[in-house]
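Incident log, structure service

09:12 report received: a user says their structure output differs between two submissions of the same chain.
09:20 pulled the input from the user's history:
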Amino acid sequence: MLEVWRRQAGGRHMHGSTNARRIAPEEAEAYRIAGGRPDAGLVILCDHATNYVPSEYGRLGLSEQQFSRHIAYDIGAEPIAFAIGSALDVPVVASKFSRLLIDPNRGSDDPTLVMRLSDGAVVPGNRYVDESEIERRRTRFWRPYHAAVTRTLESCGASGSQPMLLAIHSMTDVWRGVARPWPVAILWDEEDDRLARPLLEGFRADSSLLVGDNEPYHGCLEGDTLWQHGRANGLAGAIIEYRQDLVAGEAGQRDWAGRTVAILAPILQSARERSTSKAKAG
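09:34 re-ran on a clean worker, output below:
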């Protein structure tokens, strides 16, 4: 699927020479970085990419069925994130551990960092977890993931680019018995609409779509990934939530990745043009 989007969007050629310095791919236990151009103007994050838990945690006492649910990961988000990254030749940083183990999209002292109960499911392996075990998980998973995000942003900054941050997530189609009407939603910090506004406009250009605007969640939660790495650093950022019933399969993932690439490409082009004009004026 990634190669399909690279061909459709022109891949790295849309940014210039293939000989330009690049962020190298990197993998570790806690994260995966897909390489891209540091000067592309965008970094994609996928906090809840996988439902993987190391064998020594014994699936946290849950059944395989529970690990196929949204409580363990954001269904469909990982392939969409990497497809968009490949098409636009921008870096992607994704987690490699289940949110049930420890949630990277939470502040380090958030009470929901390690969930004991999630959407009606008691998590036996977390039920009696103490602070020392939480700290072990922070050290092994949470901190390395966030350090990888920081390094990627620093590499972009070193190229002279101030990147925007786009976090890819997915939401359940029904929550507590209520159907969610939004196929896609944009979550954002209302004090900074630099990325969120053109994303909302791009998706709303399709009049058949009901696009969530800070629904069903608000996009500025103190301590979450976008807050830590975006707002705290003055970077424009937004979250896209795709509805999981639409992106659970490969066809839906291709469709929504393609829609998103088509919207992001002109946003990045406009940002580069503004940056160039500002540099000339300065």
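09:41 both user submissions now match this output. Likely a transient worker issue. Closing.
09:42 reviewer note: The longest strand covers residues 164-171. The first helix runs from residue 2 to 9.
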